[in-house]
Amino acid sequence: MSSSVDTTVIDQTPAARHHFESLEQQKDASTIGMWVFLITEIMFFGGLFMAYFAYRQAYPAAFASASNKTTLWIGAVNTTVLICSSLTMALAVRCAATGKKNLIVLFLVLTLLLGSVFLGVKAYEYHDKWVHHEIPGEHFECEGCTDAGHASLFFALYFGMTGLHATHMIIGAGFLIFLIIKASKGAYTPRWFTPVEMFGLYWHFVDIVWIFLFPLLYLIDRSGAAK
Amino acid sequence: MANHNTHSNPNVRHEGTEHHTEHIVPIGIYIGVFLALVVLTWVTTFVSTIDLGRLNIFVALSIAIFKASLVLLFFMHVKYGTRLTKMIVLSGIYWLFLLLFIVMMDLWTRNWMGVPGR
Predict the structure, then answer these.
(1) Min Cα separation A140/chain B (Å)
(2) What are the residue boundaries of the structural domains of chain A, listed by start?
(3) CB A72, CB B48: distance < 8 Å
(4) DSSP 8-state code for residue B78
(5) Cβ(A59)–Cβ(A147) under 8 Å?
(6) Can you give the pLDDT at residue A191?
(7) B99 and B63, same structural domain?
(8) Given this model, what pLDDT does residue B53 score?
(9) Which positions ≥6 away from A80 have C-beta within 8 Å?
(10) Cβ under 8 Å to A: B residues 1-30
(11) What own/partner pairs with CB < 8 Å and gap ≥ 24 does A134-138 have?
């Protein structure tokens, strides 16, 4: 038995650490750890959602007129882009589990591309808001808004929530680049692809946050206040 | 770091003995969930332009909760996960519910009795 071969096997597919009974137990522990982290993230975003609901019920008219300043179809297209990136991420994890090494790289690259498209569209929307003085602050203006003072509260929450979401996507893009490099070197095998799978959980979580941001910021009050 | 453990010699393949968590989801399920998510996104977009009064918010949030559940169960593999994972996910959702519901109970009912502070 050649010892150099053994070392590569250990390096590329880490065996269960001594405090785990089996690879399966080790993976379950990773999954649970990741979920506990995601729950802290749920509460992190939850605080902002709470602020949104509280102020929306306090100033419904201001929120209705301000949320109509968002562009409906851009939001819907961007939601679709993000859902596509979730699909490619799920397929990347599946390819890792079935040992299709080249396809892992392909799907991770597609995920990164779609994530970048999402961020690009978001940047365009931010620029649009900037041009129309819809950034809360001294020069805030909201044409045709009822109660402009509290409309600025909507935009503060809009930028806070989508900004935090975009920050998560930028961090995710960094992890994706790392995973693409590792995957292209063949680091992930059906026996051990925990990083790909755990990152998948993170990426899908960010998708779920957007699934709630989209109706709250773009859709609600669309019909009634438009008149 | 030396691997002295006897439990899992890296040269020994454990195939067939430890693959409960390695559930390979059929590709059709991923495509089906993806199509459902896209269709629901556009359904909720178009419904939002129709004036349903107070129902608009319920429709939008119900569709969002359904979409999130699809992602959670299939893309995030919670459906195929261990019971402990499921319990942790549920407890997280429960704490979020506590945060939102208890605060909203306060805000909704605060001016019922003319209590100052609003």
Answers:
(1) 26
(2) 23-218
(3) yes
(4) G
(5) yes
(6) 86
(7) no
(8) 83
(9) B38, B41, B42
(10) 3-5, 7-11, 13-14, 18-22, 24-25, 27, 30
(11) A134/A69, A135/A159
Question: In one letter, which amino acid is B80?
Answer: Y
Q: What was the pLDDT predicted at B117?
A: 58
- Residues 41-70 of chain B with CB under 8 A from chain A are 41-42, 44-45, 48-53, 56-57, 60-61, 63-64, 67-68
- Nearest CA-CA distance, residue B93 and chain A, Å: 8
Domain A23-218, CATH homologous superfamily name and number: Cytochrome c oxidase, subunit III, four-helix bundle (1.20.120.80)
In whole angstroms, give the CA distance from residue A37 to residue B95.
14
Residue B12: band (very low, low, confident or very high) from pLDDT cuts 50, 70, 90: very low
Nearest chain A residue to B84 by CA distance is A32
Residue B18 lies in a domain: no
Looking at the fold, whether B75 and B107 belong to one and the same domain comes out as no
pLDDT per position as a tens digit, B18-57 = 444 467 899 999 999 999 999 999 999 999 998 888 889 9
Give residue B89's pLDDT: 95
- Give residue B58's domain range: 25-80
Q: Is the pLDDT of residue A201 over 70?
A: yes
Interface test with B, best of A24, A72, A98 (most B CBs within 10 A): A24
Note whether B33 and B75 are same-domain residues: yes
